[in-house]
Automatic annotation (TrEMBL):
The keyword Nuclease applies. This is HNH endonuclease. CDD domains: HNHc. Keywords: Endonuclease, Hydrolase, Nuclease. It comes from Geodermatophilus africanus. It comes from the Bacteria. InterPro entries: DUF222 (IPR003870), HNH (IPR002711), HNH_nuc (IPR003615). Belongs to the Rv1128c/1148c/1588c/1702c/1945/3466 family. Residues 315-367 form the HNH nuclease domain. One of its GO terms (molecular function) is endonuclease activity.
Length: 408
């Protein structure tokens, strides 16, 4: 271990800045092999620790819990390491390839599913040659991408239980959300093939419909925006189940002086599920929202609850939909049902709530307009869009969108 640590220290001390292209790749390839070999040793050691009950030394019941607590692995990663370790005892071909660095820890864990007790019992009942399965799957892992390994394992397990009952697809579904200090969310989910297909079909429709000229978002950003849009569409239809007598809605609480102040006002508005946002973001949400005035007393209790005012009434929104036909931001073709009605002159700054002061903007471009971009309707009915630096976004044949003009 001391020699291994010293070798790693020497590698870490090397200056990589003189290297480029092929030289960096030549350095990377053997490092990846060594990474796989180390992963194999970790999995083998974890398996022996599991068999001997080593986790009890530190007061824990399983090696999965030990890996989560002592190695700071995620739940899924700890389970993957444990599963890979268990598989090595039943699949010597995989164990040898893993130890040689020819397959990854992730591949070993996927193949390890064939060595789980239930799969081993079924294989024994059907006189399956496990050594042949080990050899075939290991060869796939050596030569093919990870996705092919996963498909091969899935095919084997399906053939192993061809006559078994169709599982309940909802039993394996899972969605876990984690809220961070700033109110943002991250999470993970597991869906059965049919549920996954439904989600992909819905998101892909929104991704493709929401693509516009000059869209520089990554695929991941497009999918995330599509998920938010899917939720927004459902909330807007009003067809979701009611909660405590009220339709689901995005709720923001902000002081009147913060709403009226043009400053950003970070961390001054609170949302319904506890997230904190800026006053600027609250003003953006207020563009096409409903506003309720509540007067608070010195003891923090409400003294007066004014009536709720819908900023853009339904008839003005319908007129804007007929006039604009969708998002008016240059190059965007988002349909009307994706759009908010934006105040060209902010409502809190005296802007009137009428058709002349209205513009349809999808969520992404509504955000852009509240961050320095500007849209303006010309007397002939055409909409023009300017960047924060005053240059106009021009879309059309021979106009790349990089042509600079002076904003009127």
């Amino acid at each position: 271990m001391n020699e291994l640590t010293a070798a790693l220290d020497a590698l870490a001390a090397e200056d990589l800045s003189p290297l480029f292209g092929p030289a960096l790749l030549d350095r990377l390839r053997p490092l990846l092999v060594l990474q796989h070999r180390l992963a194999a040793e970790v999995a083998r050691t974890v398996r022996e620790a599991e068999v001997s009950g080593a986790a009890e030394v530190d007061g824990l019941k399983t090696m999965a819990s030990w890996l989560r607590g002592h190695a700071h692995l995620s739940t899924s990663e700890a389970a993957r390491v444990v599963r890979a370790g268990r598989a090595l005892a039943h699949l010597p071909g995989l164990a040898a390839a893993f130890a040689a660095g020819e397959v990854t820890g992730e591949q070993a864990a996927v193949i390890g599913r064939v060595a789980e007790p239930e799969a081993l019992a079924r294989a024994a009942e059907q006189d399956v040659d496990l050594a042949a399965v080990d050899r075939v799957l290991t060869d796939v892992a050596r030569e093919r991408p990870h996705a092919d390994t996963a498909r091969a394992v899935h095919h084997y397990l399906d053939r192993l239980d061809e006559d078994g009952p169709e599982p309940d697809p909802t039993e394996g579904r899972r969605l876990v959300l984690a809220k961070h200090a700033d109110g943002s969310l991250s999470g993970r989910f597991d869906l059965d093939p049919v549920g996954g297909e439904r989600l992909q079909a819905a998101l892909e429709a929104l991704v493709q419909a929401g693509r516009s000229a000059g869209d520089a978002r990554t695929r991941g950003q497009q999918a995330a925006d599509a998920l938010v849009q899917l939720c927004d569409n459902q909330l807007a239809t009003g067809s979701l189940p009611t909660l405590r007598g009220h339709k689901p809605q995005v709720v923001v609480t902000v002081a009147l002086e913060d709403l009226a102040d043009p400053a950003v006002g970070r961390g001054t508005a609170e949302m319904g599920f506890g997230a904190t946002i800026s006053a600027a973001r609250a003003r953006w949400l207020a563009c096409d929202g409903a506003v309720t005035r509540i007067v608070m007393g010195p003891d923090g209790l409400p003294l007066e609850h004014g009536r709720t005012l819908r900023l853009f009434p339904a008839h003005v929104r319908r007129a804007a939909e007929v006039r604009d036909g969708g998002c008016v931001f240059a190059g965007c073709g988002a349909p009307t049902w994706w759009c908010d009605v934006h105040h060209l002159i902010e409502w809190m700054n005296g802007g009137e709530t009428n058709l002349e002061n209205a513009a349809l903007l999808c969520e992404r471009h509504h955000t852009k307009v509240h961050h320095g971009f500007r849209v303006e309707r010309q007397p002939d009915g055409r909409w023009r869009t300017w960047r924060p630096d005053g240059t106009e976004i021009l879309i059309g044949p021979g106009r790349s969108g990089l042509i600079l003009t002076t904003a009127a």
